[in-house]
Amino acid sequence: MFTKSLVKSKRVKSISFHPKEPMVAIGLHNGGIQLFNYESNKLLKEYNDHEGAVRGVDFHVSEPFFVSGGDDKIVRVWSYESHQIKYFLEGHADYIRCVQFHKEYTWLLSCSDDMTLRLWDYPEERCISVITGHENFVMNLSFHPSQDLIISVSLDKSIRIWDYSSLEDRPLIKDVYDGLHGNATDSQDEKKEKEKEKEKGGIRSKFLNFKMFQMFDIIPKFVLEHHEDGINWGCFHPTQSLIASASDDHTIKIWQISEEKAWLVTTLSGHTDSVASVMFDHFDKDVLISNSEDGTMKIWSLSKQKCIKTIHDISPDKFWCISHHPTAPLYACGHDNGTILFKLRKTKTPIVETKNGVVYISDLVIKEFNLKTDETTTLLNLKKRSSFSFVDQLSVSTKSDAYALVTEENFEVFYKANYGDKKYLKYVGTGKDLFFLSPTRVVFLSEEGNISIKQLNEEKRIRIFKQKETLYSRIFSSYPGTILVYYSGKLGILDLEQKMISKKISVEELKNVVWSQDKQYLALVCKREIVICNRKLKKITSIEENQKKVKSARWGNINAIFYTTKSQLKYLLLNGESGTIKTLENSPCFIGKIHNNNIIYFDQNQKMYVTKIKSNDYLLKMALEEKKTSEINKLMKETKFPGHSMVRYLKNKGYPNIALPLVKDPKIKFDLAILSNDLEVAFSLAKRLDNEIHWKRLATVAMKNGNIDMVEKCYQRSKDFGKLSFLYLVSGNTENLNKIYKICQNKNLPNLIFQNSLFLNSIEERIEMLIQNGRTSLAYLLANNNGLSELAEKIKNEYLNNDEKKIQNLLKFQEQKKQESNLLLTPTPIIKNTNNNKNKSQNQNQNNWPLLRIEKESKINLTMNSNLNEQTIEKAQGGWGMDGMDNLDDLQFGLDFGVSNNNDNGNNNMEEEEGGGGGGGWDIDLNLENLIPKDELNELNSSLSTTKEGSQLDNNLFIAPTHGKSFANELLETSEIPVEFIASGQFDIAMKLLNRQIGITNFKLLKDIFLKIYLSSNNTLKHFPLIKSISNPIIQKNKKKNMRTISPIDLEFLENDLLQNAYGAASKGNFSLALENFRNILFLIPFLIIEKREEQQHVYQLIKICTEYITGFSLEMERKKFQNDKSQIRLLEMAAYFTHCDLQQTHLTLALRSAMLLSLKIGNHINALSFAKRLLEISTIKAFSEQAKKLIPYCKKNLSNKIEIDYDERNPFVICSYSYTPIYQGFEKIQCPYCNAHYLPKYLNQTCNVCKLSKIGLQCDGLNILKTPQKFKK
Question: What positions does the domain COPA/B TPR occupy (predicted)?
């Protein structure tokens, strides 16, 4: 049996499952009705209108109703949506024992201690038939699932089967509620008309022609009387003609009915007290479930007519009722202390993956499905051979044609003595986790926790390994010679020969281990996590499902594991990538095999499905991981991937060339082209963007790739004359170097003129430049040193005024430096430029660096992408040049500056590059006289001169600039973060945000923080006297130009300073100082600004830590007030509660030691023993551990508690932070919307006792301190 949920409450008298929602209605002996969600373990609603026990509840099959009946003799039909009573039915004269809706008609059946059954038409709120015949209390009743029959049982020891087939008028639920409320297609007038008819009472006659049923319409068909005492429960079998009854005579009787007669089949004995209730299993038709006032539950086999399992440890008290889910294998039993929801078996179909498909077991028939042939064959029918009614695990040895069935505690192995025999032998044993080590050997885990190996054709059993202190809890298959063992939260590899565990990994709540096909990787399937390891148990990657449980997992190939949660099929790659494939319709589902993107899976009803994986996201990631070029090309051409998420993924994974076709934004596309070295695409995008930054980036990448031609073009576009000059120097392109020199002269760039004159080794030009810039002494020395005597004499006479003294000093200086100096010559080019206009097309790419030819593993050719990468591979000498821009002749130097070359009589002006005129060229004005005819030019000049005066008037006009947005106004549109509004001085908006997000109402404690944030987030500029100073916010802008306030409160400060100070004070026992520090952290957290989601998780964790410590320390300080309490009950209770606060290990050790010693002092040895055991598990302090070890045997000898306290450590609870009392699981509780501290419902709307800020129980949006670009929605 697998427990689903435990609901603690008063005595439970009735239970009903909702047919669709994860919800149960629980009728209590104290008159309450609880609606409980068993998925979230939360109490949804409690109704307390009944006076006395609620002995019957039932959910409606389609409408949002449930019915209840009890000791107040009234049947109530409730709406669980509006939480109001829908219908009110009176008529019974004594306690109502059971109520039930009909599945098809608007009927409601009830039975009572007044010895009658009543059939109600609940929409009309009237009784339509009173069924009499019993002579004592009628305890239970039920409609037949498919026939017109009713069963009722009574304390008069009789079972009565009633036939209502003669009833003629049968109002269908659909018809009645369409009539009463109107169809979805009805107009408003039609709906109003129907409401009027309903008020008049005519709606029923219009739709149903209803009439009062007579007594003889429902007649007794059979009366069964074989029980020796009163009968408490009776029910029909869901598919067979069987009835089960439970009696005070401690027995269960099974009856067979036909059209003509009914007879007793068998009597099931085993209970030692009154059998309270009985129920057929709706999924396993051979199983019967009963519970009794003896505190036990029994599972019976109908075919074997005996009890196959007795469950003792659910309730120490009496059972009263039982119920089952209409469509799921889920059951519930009510007892004196609450309700238990459980499953009899795992809903997972036992599956074994094979080479071509799967082998699975359904209804004790082992079948094989072949995925290639799409055929299912029966391998072995075990219905008559096996003693099991259901199986948890299947193991198969195809080589020896052997099969093993494993349940929770037992197993059966069916094998052949010799291969080829037709007869199967059977080996039965006690144990679990059995699997085949070889065709004739199995290994399993015994009840004692020992690993045992069995040779099927021998009687000998070999015990091979047992750890001294820790017993194994699970074992799993592994590679040959080893098995996997799980114990104490660790998984290890056990070597069968050496009997040693070689490798270990820590993993919690391990459910299964799934090996990859090549046995190189294994997936550890936990309750809410999957961990992938290599065969040495070294962790590779993992994924955690916080909200949902992992149901199953299978390897798709060596790179991916597929797994299912309750409603989704997901995947995890070895590189850590994960995603969702699809949402499953028949949930929960369990994967059988993944092969060639086909998936075989089973639902909880053991129905098999085969479907195709159609997730393009997964297929692309797998194709990239496996480098399948053709698959990538196909997906990129046929699939439209979502915008930036896939582009970002491809970019981060090193596939920018694949992401290139997905992008339209030129800036992003340029970045991808640069990363993928697609220089042609990058160049065309740079021309569109025409930005200096992009030209420089492209030049850098082109230089790394040796594309000198493209480097030249980028320098030309970005007008980087210095780098362009050096490029021509190292490449020996003196022709273009001369042109650059002339450009620098026209632009009057002295530094570049001098630099280029050095590069060109032009001494006269250098001398001329020095003279023009007033450096006449240097010009004289340069001329004299290079033997230009005439020029030196000219400088001496014209610029130095024949100052002999100065000249002598210069010559003396020259003589001194001659010995130390060398002649400066132009360096030899690295690659000689061979370009000329005659063989331009032939030698176009000769300037580029030669590249080594390398063969790539794969070539990915995508649409919208160039073939540049293939060209660079195929051409050994480069080949990355571009047409139409070979040299500076394409840049119209002659036209811009009136500069001509010496050849061709000065008419060889450089022409503009094709298509480049829009880029601005070299930003030099054209000569209009050469472009516009003279007569038109004169007209333009005259018109300009006549309007000159008017233009001056227009230029004097002042146009006021438009008023821009203030920082405060921009925040209203872009932010939801409170601290930003505080920084801008908008305290009122910040307070509204904090109230809406986390329910803060007590702002007095935050006044100083508000003021300090405002003052530290603004700077003040002083103005003229008596004029108010100007205050400006301190802001910063990110790359997207979004403004961001710089918060003075830092997360690192809270974690590293305040939190550590709080921990330090706690360790020293200074609880008041620790409380102050923890509460200060809670005060400051709402004023953080974070930009990473990882930091957001840190903040949530920080809030949880502070809440736990404040609750614990406040409880401990309150406990000290009870030191003088003579009873000492409250003193010990609070010490026990303190040990359940989530503290650091050191502090929890101190709390456990205090509770242990206090329990020992008072004489509660059972409690002291519990605290001592917990202390031993976590303590790292030797002295404390020794104390606990000494105390344990002493407490075991005196196993008793002197005083009774309200403390149950086995039942999960939280602590109310006001009353400091436990709130056990299943009881209603409310929380603080900020710190999530727990409280009893009576403290609703009070100020939280932990954070001192928020109002308890408010429904809020949640704290928003994460800075995102999303717009603020007013």
Answer: 645-792
